[in-house]
Amino acid sequence: MSHYIFKLSEKVTRESVSYKNRYGIKVSADLYLPKDLDDSKKYPAVIIGGPYGGVKEQGSGIYAQNLAERGFVALAFDPAYNGESSGEPRHVSSPDSFVEDFSAAVDYVGTRSYVDRNKIGAIGICGSGGFVLSAAKVDPRIKAVATANMYEISRYVRNGWQDSMTNEQRKEFLKHLGEQRWKDFENGTPQLGPTFPDEIPEGLDPITSEIYEFYLTPRGQHPNSIGAFTLTSNMSFINFPLLTDLESISPRPILFVMGENAHSRYFTEDAFKMAAEPKELVVVKDARHIDLYDRTDLIPFEKLESFFIENLK
């Protein structure tokens, strides 16, 4: 039985499901339904992707449960190559694959008899914020999109934190990645980046300290969330920006949600500027980055509910 960081609500049912994506990889997901769901009716659906390196038993499951309580069919999934989803080698990270995860989820929920396939929305938390926006650009079946403290992973990997990486540093980084590919080829398995330590070390910078506060404590710890991807995964993110042509999502609406004190604010603020109308920015008072993973007292579920009700019709 899977370990969840939250208690199952008495108002919903949760079912473990799986389905193939267009690459033939089996995606593992949890389907949350209102307990009073009537099979003869058609419901709106919302798909939720979790933080970068997270799994469905954490933040995305919390969002899915809360939306199911509000009358939506909601699905939280593990990205391909990660969590309980299949795909070899393990812990690959790929912009194309992680964007595909959202469209594969649309395939699945849109073929449920009780889902109105014209009323499907999606939410991306942290790194999934960039992936869901990228998916919506090319998949018009996603009728409304929301992000929560989004990270644009391709920008982060290519340009460094707050765009501090120089061209020379990037060239050196790519040189190391090229060398790593030879090592991986000779070893027959790709090298993982550093995984989460067993305990929270002393003297951390504020951002790492905050991330560890979630992932290394009972608040968010999960054995399938190890904090690492294969090192050579970074090559794809440098080569494939996620938010090119972001304005093409219009006239479908985007709701950007960010914490007032989130270290990741600049990703949301810049994406909001790039997006075309209709768009809305909600700033959650006193919330840090990780607080929009699991703090149900801070996550603006009423706003998310009204956004999807208004735009999935």
Briefly characterize the structure.
With 313 residues, the chain is an alpha/beta fold. The protein contains ten helices and eight strands. It has an eight-stranded mixed beta sheet with strand order 1-2-4-3-5-6-7-8, with helices on both faces.
Give a structural overview:
There is one protein chain. With 313 residues, the protein is an alpha/beta fold. Helix content is 34%, strand content 19%. Strands 1-2-4-3-5-6-7-8 form an eight-stranded mixed beta sheet, with helices on both faces. Helix 2 (95-109) packs across helix 3 (128-138). The longest helix has 21 residues, at 167-187. 44% of the residues are buried.
Q: Can you tell me the residue ranges where pLDDT is under 50 for at least 5 consecutive residues?
A: none
Report the biggest beta sheet as strand number plus sense, adding barrel if it closes. Answer: 8 strands, mixed
- What letter string, H or E per element, gives the SSE order? EEEHEHEHEHHHHEHEHH
Mean pLDDT: 97
User: Order of strands in the sheet with the most strands?
Assistant: 1-2-4-3-5-6-7-8
Q: Whole-number radius of gyration?
A: 19 Å
* SS element count, helices: 10
Q: Which class best fits the helix and strand makeup? A: alpha/beta
Helix content: 25-40%
Give the end-to-end Cα distance, rounded to a whole number of Å. 37 Å
Strand content: 15-25%
Overall 3D form: globular
What is the total tally of β strands?
A: 8
